[in-house]
C-alpha cells in the first residue's frame, strides 16, 4: 500500500509539473506579443540571419560544384595517366602505349588522347595552342566538350581529319567554319611537322578551352607526329560505387611506370574550393550568429528589465524561480524558432526559381578565372537546412540563458519595492 501511495504521489507530482510547464508555455506565448514592434524587429533579424547563412551555404556549394564540374567535364575527367615527367614538360617525347589491360571495363569510362604544344596559322594570324587528338566515341562518356559545339559538328571518329576550335580562337585568327588552317608541331623525330586542317566545328566552352585548344582525331594526330599508336594521356572516370582514390591507386599498381593522378592533384583550385567551402560556411555562420546573438540578448534583457515587477510579483505569489527562467527560455525559443522558420521559407523562395540554373551572364568571365562555369545550380538539401536551422535555434536559446537566469534571481522584495 505504501509503495502504491508513493507511486501515485510521484505520478501526481509529475502531472502537476507538466501542467505548470504547459501554463508557463501559454504565458510565454502571450508575453511574446506584448510588444509587437520589438518582437517583429527581432524576428526580422533572426529571419535575415538564417536566410543569409543558408544562402551563403547553398551558393558556395553551387560554386564548388560548378568549379568541379567545369574541370572534370572539360578535359580533366576524374583522373589522368601520363608518362613520367609529362606534367612538368608536355613534350611529344613523353608518350606511352595505352595500358589496355589496366583500363578494363570494370575501371569505368576512359579515353586516350594525344596532347602536345603546337602553332596554328590562318590566312591572317598565328597563335600558340595545344593540339589534342581525341577518340570522339569515348570522349562523350567523360567530357561535355562534344556537346559544346555551337557551329558545325564535332569529330566523327579517330580518323577524322577535320579540326574543331573555340569561337574565341577563331575570332583571334580571323577565320571561320569551313576555312583551312595550318597546324605545326614537333614530331617524334624532332622535326617540324605541319598539316592543313579544315575547320569543321566551333566550340562554345569556357574561355580557357576556347582560346588555347584545337581538337582533331586521335589517329590523325598520331600520323602527324609519327608516334605510331602511342598517346600523351589517358583520362578516366571511376565506375559507379567506387571512389576515385581507389581506382587511382589500383591503376598505379597495375601501371607502375606511369604517372597516375586524380583530379584533386590535377585541378588544385577546384579541389581547394570544394574542400574549404565547409570552412567558409562555418566562419560565416559564426559571424552572423554573433551579430544575431547581440540583438537577441539585448532584446530579451530589455524585456526582462521591463518586467521586473511582474517577475517579482510572481515570485512573491509562490512561483518557483525555475519556472520564471523557463518562461523566459520558452519566449526565446518561440521567438527564435519562428524567425528560423521564416528564414527557411525565405531561402526556399530564393532557390526555387533557380532550380534550372543561374546564368552568371556578364560575371561568367570573372567566374571562369576562379574555375567556375557559366551556370550555377543551387540545391537546397534538407539535411543542410535542418542542420543550420538547428544550430541557430540551439545556440540562440543558449544565448538567452543569462537573461533568463537574471529574471529568476530577481529578489521579490526589490521587485515589489518598484511597484507604484
Short description:
Helix content is 55%, strand content 17%. Strands 2-3-8-5-7-6 form a six-stranded mixed barrel. Strands 11-12 form a two-stranded antiparallel sheet.
What does this structure look like?
With about 425 residues, the protein is of the alpha+beta class. It folds into 2 domains: about 20-70 and about 270-415, no CATH class; about 80-235, no CATH class. It has 15 helices and 12 strands. It has helices at about 1-30, 35-75, 135-140, 165-175, 205-210, 220-225, 245-255, 265, 270-305, 310-315, 320-350, 365-370, 380-400, 400-410, 410-415, and strands spanning about 80-85, 110-120, 125-135, 150, 165, 180-185, 190-205, 215, 235, 260, 360, 375. The chain has a 6-stranded mixed β-barrel with strand order 2-3-8-5-7-6.
Layout of secondary structure:
Layout: H1 2-32, H2 36-76, E1 79-83, E2 110-121, E3 126-134, H3 136-142, E4 149-152, E5 163-166, H4 167-173, E6 180-186, E7 192-203, H5 207-212, E8 213-217, H6 218-225, E9 233-236, H7 244-254, E10 258-262, H8 263-266, H9 268-306, H10 308-316, H11 321-351, E11 358-359, H12 364-369, E12 375-376, H13 382-399, H14 401-408, H15 412-416
Parallel strand pairs: 3-8, 5-7
Antiparallel strand pairs: 1-9, 1-10, 2-3, 2-6, 2-9, 4-7, 5-8, 6-7, 11-12
Helix pairs in contact: 1-11, 2-9, 2-11, 2-13, 9-13, 9-14, 11-13, 11-14
Amino acid at each position: 500500500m505504501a509503495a502504491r501511495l508513493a507511486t501515485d504521489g510521484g505520478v501526481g507530482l509529475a502531472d502537476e509539473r507538466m501542467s505548470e510547464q504547459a501554463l508557463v508555455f501559454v504565458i510565454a506565448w502571450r508575453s511574446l506579443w506584448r510588444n509587437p514592434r520589438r518582437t517583429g524587429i527581432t524576428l526580422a533579424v533572426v529571419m535575415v540571419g538564417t536566410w543569409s547563412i543558408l544562402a551563403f551555404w547553398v551558393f558556395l556549394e553551387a560554386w564548388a560544384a560548378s568549379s568541379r564540374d567545369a574541370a572534370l567535364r572539360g578535359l580533366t575527367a576524374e583522373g589522368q595517366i601520363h608518362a613520367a615527367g609529362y606534367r612538368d614538360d608536355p613534350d611529344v617525347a613523353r608518350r606511352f602505349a595505352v595500358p589496355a589491360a589496366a583500363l578494363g571495363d570494370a575501371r569505368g569510362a576512359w579515353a586516350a588522347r594525344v596532347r602536345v604544344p603546337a602553332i596554328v596559322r590562318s590566312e591572317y594570324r598565328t597563335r600558340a595552342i595545344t593540339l589534342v587528338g581525341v577518340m570522339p566515341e569515348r570522349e562523350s562518356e567523360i567530357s561535355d566538350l562534344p556537346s559544346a559545339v555551337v557551329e558545325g559538328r564535332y569529330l566523327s571518329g579517330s580518323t577524322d581529319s577535320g579540326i574543331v576550335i573555340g569561337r574565341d580562337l577563331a575570332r583571334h585568327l580571323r577565320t571561320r567554319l569551313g576555312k583551312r588552317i595550318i597546324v605545326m608541331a614537333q614530331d617524334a623525330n624532332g622535326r617540324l611537322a605541319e598539316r592543313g586542317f579544315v575547320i569543321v566545328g566551333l566550340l562554345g566552352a569556357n574561355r580557357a578551352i576556347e582560346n588555347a585548344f584545337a581538337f582533331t582525331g586521335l589517329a590523325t594526330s598520331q600520323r602527324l607526329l609519327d608516334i605510331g599508336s602511342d598517346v600523351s594521356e589517358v583520362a578516366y572516370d571511376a565506375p559507379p560505387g567506387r571512389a576515385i582514390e581507389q581506382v587511382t591507386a589500383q591503376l598505379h599498381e597495375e601501371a607502375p611506370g606511369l604517372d597516375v593522378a586524380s583530379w584533386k592533384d590535377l585541378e588544385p583550385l577546384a579541389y581547394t574550393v570544394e574542400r574549404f567551402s565547409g570552412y567558409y560556411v562555418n566562419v560565416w555562420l559564426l559571424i552572423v550568429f554573433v551579430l544575431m546573438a547581440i540583438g537577441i540578448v539585448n532584446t530579451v534583457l530589455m524585456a526582462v528589465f521591463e518586467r521586473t515587477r511582474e517577475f517579482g510579483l510572481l515570485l512573491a505569489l509562490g512561483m518557483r524561480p525555475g519556472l520564471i527562467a523557463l518562461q523566459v527560455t520558452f519566449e526565446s525559443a518561440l521567438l527564435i524558432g519562428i524567425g528560423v522558420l521564416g528564414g527557411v521559407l525565405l531561402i526556399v523562395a530564393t532557390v526555387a526559381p533557380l532550380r534550372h540554373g543561374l546564368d552568371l551572364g556578364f560575371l561568367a568571365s570573372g567566374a571562369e578565372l576562379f574555375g567556375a562555369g557559366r551556370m550555377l545550380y543551387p540545391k537546397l538539401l534538407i539535411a543542410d537546412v535542418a542542420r543550420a536551422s538547428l544550430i541557430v535555434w540551439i545556440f540562440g536559446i543558449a544565448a538567452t540563458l543569462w537573461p533568463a537566469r537574471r529574471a529568476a534571481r530577481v529578489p521579490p522584495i526589490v521587485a515589489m519595492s518598484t511597484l507604484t
